[in-house]
Amino acid sequence: MRVLTLHNYYCQPGGEDRVFRAEAALLEKRGHEVIRYTRHNNELVGKGAIAALSSAVWNPVVVRDLQRLIADRKPDVAHVHNVFSALSPAVYSTLWRAGIPVVQTLHNYRLVCPSARMRRGVRSCTACRGRVVPWPAMVWRCYQDRLASSVAMGVVLGAHNIMRTWWKWIDLYVFPSDFARRQLVSAGLPADRMVVKPHFVEDPGSVSDGSGGALFLGRLEVEKGVLELIETWRWVRGCQLEIIGDGPLKATVQSRLKDPELSHVALTGWLRQEEVASRLSSARLVAVPSLGDESFGLPVIEAFSHGVPVLASSRGALPELVQEGVNGVIADPLDAKGMAQRVCAVVDQPSQWRRLAEGARQSYLHRYGVESAYRTLMDLYERATSWHRSRIKECR
C-alpha cells in the first residue's frame, strides 16, 4: 500500500510530531511505501500579515506540490495529521478531487477552538464550539495570547466552516481518545465517520525495577500542572521527583526549586528520547497532573511500556488511560495534600507498587503496543477507502 502522510510542524516540537514519525516508520517497517509531505510554520515567519493569512487559509504552493506528487506517486490513501498553518486546509479538497481517500487524525481540539486546548486561563471553555466563526477566541486573544494571531486563526477556521471543508472532504476522523471524539461530535462533525485509535510507543523490551524516583515528562506550561506537582512534593518524602522538559515556565520552576524544602525535586530540562527511556527503566512513578482537558497522554503509555504506574489528573482523557488501582492512581491536581497521599500510597508500599506496575505493563501490551496500532491503522485505511467509494457514488 502507498500511504501519503501529511503533517505541518509547529515552531515548537510536540507530541503530534512524534506520532506522525512513529506511524510512518511503523508502516515502512511493515513493507508499505510511505510518501511524506511536510511543511513548517517557520515558513510563515517574515511574511507580511496578509500573505501569511492568505497562505494559512489556502496555500496554492501546497496545492501544486500535492497535485504533482499525486500524479507521480499515485498514493492509495492519505493520512493527514496537522494542517495549521503553512500546509493549510487546501490539502483536503486537493486530495478529494484526485480521488484519494482521506484519513484525518485530530490530535487536539483545533477545529472547535482556535487555541486547540478548550481552555481560557485555568478554566475549561467551550465558547467557540459549534460557532461558524469563533469570535470569542478572537476577542479574548486565545491563540498565542495575541490579537492578530487569534483573529488569523479565527478567520481560517471560519472560512473553512463556511466552505464545509471538514464535512465534505474528509472520509474518516481518528481520535486518540473517546473524550476527544465527544468534543467534536458535540460541535456537529459527522459522528458516523469518527473512530478512536489510541497512540502507541515501541516496546522497550524491559521493565522498570522501581529503584528510582518519580518523573514528570512534558512541556513546562501552566496547563500541564507542573507547578501544582512541585507543591505536592512538599508533602512527599522519601521519593525524588525529576522534571524532564522545557517550556515557558522554565524560569518559574527554577525559582521555585531554590526553596530548601524542595531539595528532593530536580529540573533536568529537555532530554533525547533514549535518555528518557533510560530514566523510565528505573522509575517508580510517572506523574501526569494536567489541569487541561488532554486529548491523550503520551507520557502515560510511555510509562506503561516500562511497567511504571502513573499518577494522573482526573481531567480530560487521562481517566480513560489510567484505571484506579489497576495501572495507577487518579488525583485532583489542585489538591496538593490529596495528591501527595496518592503518591505515597504507591511509592511507599512495595506490594502495591508491584501490582500496579504489572497492571501498567499489561495495559501497554493489550492496548498501546505496536501490533495493536498496526492492525488498527490497516482497518482505518480500509474503512476510509470503502467510505470514499460510497461517497463518490452518491455524488454521481
Structure description:
This protein is α/β, with parallel strands linked by helices. 43% of the residues lie in helices and 15% in strands. The strands form three sheets. A six-stranded parallel β-sheet has the order 2-1-3-4-7-8, sandwiched between helices. Strands 11-10-9-12-13-14 form a six-stranded parallel β-sheet, sandwiched between helices. Helix 9 (226-232) crosses helix 14 (336-347) and helix 12 crosses helix 15. The chain is globular and about 65 Å long.
Topology:
Blueprint: E1 2-9, H1 15-29, E2 33-40, H2 49-57, H3 60-73, E3 77-80, H4 90-97, E4 102-105, E5 119-120, E6 123-124, H5 135-139, H6 147-163, H7 165-168, E7 172-175, H8 178-185, E8 194-196, E9 214-217, H9 226-232, E10 241-244, H10 250-256, E11 265-267, H11 273-280, E12 285-288, H12 298-305, E13 310-313, H13 318-321, E14 328-331, H14 336-347, H15 350-368, H16 370-395
Helix pairs in contact: 3-4, 9-14, 12-15
Entry keywords:
single chain, alpha/beta, 6-stranded parallel sheet, 16 helices, 14 strands, 43% helix
